[in-house]
Automatic annotation (TrEMBL):
Protein name stated in the entry: Asparagine synthetase B
Keyword ATP-binding among UniProt keywords: yes
GO biological process: asparagine biosynthetic process
Region of interest: Disordered: 1-37, 49-71
Residue ranges annotated for the Asparagine synthetase domain, each copy included: 119-241, 260-348
InterPro entries reported in the protein's UniProt record: Asn_synthase, Asn_Synthetase, Rossmann-like_a/b/a_fold
Matching Pfam families: Asn_synthase (PF00733)
GO cellular component, one term: cytosol
Amino acid sequence: MTPHALQGTDPDTVEGALRDRDPLPGTGGFAGTLPDGRVVRDALGRYPVFTERGDPTNAGSDPTELDEPVGLPAGHVRSADGDERVWTLPNPEPYADGATAVAALREAIERSAGAVPGAGLAVAFSGGVDSALVAARCPDAPLYVAGFPDSPDVRAARETARLLGRVDDLQVVTLDGAAVREHAATIARATGRTNPMDIAIAIPLVAVAGRARGDGCTRLAVGQGADELFGGYDKVARAPDDPRVEADSVRGAARELVGGLPDQLERDVLALRAAGVEPAAPLLHDRVVRVALGLPGRLLVNGRGERKVALRRAARAWLPDRVAFRGKRAAQYGSRTARELDRLAREAGYERSAGGHVARFVADLAGDVPAVGAP
């Protein structure tokens, strides 16, 4: 990142958001350096930014280009005086009427996904409602799925492409052990992470991004953020009885998971950039986030345990019910990358009983893994 560079929006928009303390000023996220030297990162952390330890004026979007990179937390401004939190996500009163909420969400998705520029765009497409929504609103972009042969994600992507009439647009990136090794090392070097969950989640993304980049695409549209915003996780559906969340309600649990998005998005953005593409996440645009934060618990998870209720209802405007209401496994399981990482680590002699066997395997694959410091 060059001095005074700002990604995602213009300095005037950020200055206005700072003046008004507006956490959702109508952007898809932003991070970088303002003309006065302050470094900023939006409230949801959709773009990562780092500074050199001890020198807050030396900022960059790639931690590997700094000697001692220190990440800026979401919603903060960094200056010579230190870090200050200036934006916190709103906690609005929930919608009283479900039909009004779904209509508002539908409009927000239509505007946000439909506004993604089509030049050089591809779609990461695993066949579930999130990526299918993005694909439906980006009808001219090719679709890419990565997974082991006959993995759940590959099967779902093929079926959904058929239901959408886009079989000819779908490219399947077949994974194997060699590809998993290569991508795991790339992700570790780009992000400074070796833990199995981060690596397994990012491998399908990096595989898709690499193929799309080879085909001439420079941007990858993704469905990231939908599970967190719309109640897609089992631990949210089970709140308050699931020990993995502290919240005492479904709505509170969803908001708790939204708080983890900045860390996840940092991983995804850095990994995709290492593969040569820039991500576009229309379901994380401010207008979509604003509606999502106002959804009542019953529109996240209903009494039958159905998750992402409002999102699925909104999706019916563009998707057949078989796609809109399909359940789907998480990417690391649907692509079977988590299983393969475990197998490769054990095959290489890293014993599961010793603990951390996959992380140690990945660290050795990557060699020099950068350390990204906490502020």
